[in-house]
Every structure is written in C-alpha cells, then in structure tokens.
Specification:
The protein has 134 residues and is an all-alpha fold. It is 66% helix and 0% strand. The longest helix is centred in the last third of the chain and has 35 residues, at 85-119.
Length: 134
C-alpha cells in the first residue's frame, strides 16, 4: 500500500473515531446542572456512572492522540514534503526528460530489432504477437 493511501485510510479512521466518540459522549454522558435555578429533571437512562465514563473518555482521547501522531508520521515521510514547490517542479521536469530519453532509446532499439527481423538477420524464433492479425 502506498503512503498516500495509508494517509487517506488513517484520516478516514480518525474521522470514524471522532464520530464514534461524539456518539459515545452524546449517549453515555450524564446530564449536568448548568443553573441552580434549573435542576436536571430526569437523568438519562443510558448514562454511565462517572467512574466508568471518565476512564472510557480517557481511552477515547488516547486513541485519538495516537491516531493523530500516526497521521503526522505518515505526512512526514511523504516524498517531497521538505522540498519547495520549485524543487518539486524541477524534479518532475528532470524525470520527464529522463522518461523522454528512455523512450527514445526504446524506439531506437525497437527499430533496430525490426530492421534485423525484416532482413533475416534477427533471431527467427522472435515473433511479435501484438502485430499478428488472425
């Protein structure tokens, strides 16, 4: 799996973790009194006691922090992350020139092979199935 795909998967996983964390807090947190004049009329039936809720919240936070660090590490090893845009453009231009040169070498070698094959000098066992018509 390439680094960009790993990064995308990690970001997706972190988004799911956020969603699940928000759902957990929404469903399992107890109602809190915000104003002494307006007491909580009825507690949530699904609310967990504080001695259960707090450690679970801490675990969710720890998992989110670990995932964030994992994402940071993946970003740090992306190719070109420490290069300027101009450096990256120059690298791409160099690669394009190298590719062009390699393609020209390939074309030359292919033409030489074709000319040997048509003059009878080449290997008689070599065939080009891609050019054969049935």
């Amino acid at each position: 799996m390439d680094r960009v795909t790993q990064l995308q998967d990690s970001i997706d996983a972190m988004a799911r973790m956020f969603t699940n964390s928000i759902h957990y807090v929404h469903e399992k947190s107890a109602m809190a009194e915000l104003n002494k004049d307006m007491p909580v009329a009825q507690q949530k039936m699904q609310a967990e006691p504080p001695e259960v809720f707090r450690p679970n919240m801490q675990e969710l936070v720890t998992d989110l922090v670990k995932k964030a660090k994992e994402i940071d590490a993946l970003i740090e090893v992306l190719p070109g992350i420490k290069h300027t845009e101009d450096d990256q453009i120059k690298t791409l231009q160099d690669l394009e020139e190298e590719n062009k040169s390699a393609h020209e070498d390939y074309e030359l070698a292919f033409r030489e092979m074709e000319s040997r094959g048509s003059s009878g000098k080449g290997d008689s066992n070599v065939t080009d199935d891609s050019r054969r018509t049935e």
